[in-house]
Amino acid sequence: MIPFSSVESFRAHAPEIAADDSLVEQRIFEASVMVHASYPDLQGRIDAGNYSADIAELVVNRMVRRSLESSDVPSGIDSLQSTAGPFAQTVSFASSRDGNVFLSSQDKALLRGPRRSGRAFTVFPAGGAV
Q1: Where do the structural domains in the chain lie, given as residue ranges?
Q2: Structure confidence at residue 118 as a pLDDT band (50, 70, 90)
Q3: Most trustworthy range by pLDDT among 46-50, 65-69, 94-98, 113-117
Q4: Rounded to an integer, what distance in angstroms lies between the CA atom of residue 83 and that of residue 70?
Q5: CA separation for the pair 109, 32 (Å, rounded)
Q6: Is 45 exposed, middle or buried (0-12, 13-18, 19+ CB in 10 A)?
C-alpha cells in the first residue's frame, strides 16, 4: 500500500503541529489505510489520470491534523459549557475526538469525486416522468 502523504508534506500543511515525526508517520499510515479501505478504486483512478493525487494527499493531511490537534476539552467530549449561576453545565459527547484518524463528510465528498447521475428527469405529482 502506498501512503497518500509524507511527513514532509504534512509539515508543510500543518507547521504548527509539534508532534514527533514517528507519530506523524504512523498517523499518515493509518489515514492512508482508511482511505484505501473506504475507496479501493482511488489508486486506480489516480494511476489512470482520472483523479488528482493532490486531493488524496490533502485529505490524509487533514485527517492527521485533526487527530493531532490539541484540545482543552477532555478526550471523548466534543464541547463543554459551564455557567456559574444557577449552576448549569452542558456536555456534548463525540465519537471521533479520541485522537484517531477519521474521514469527515467533506473528506468523503472530495474522495468520491464528482457525481454523475446520467440524465436529468422530472417526476410530476400526478404520475409519470419526463
Answers
A1: 7-70+101-112
A2: low
A3: 46-50
A4: 24
A5: 16
A6: middle
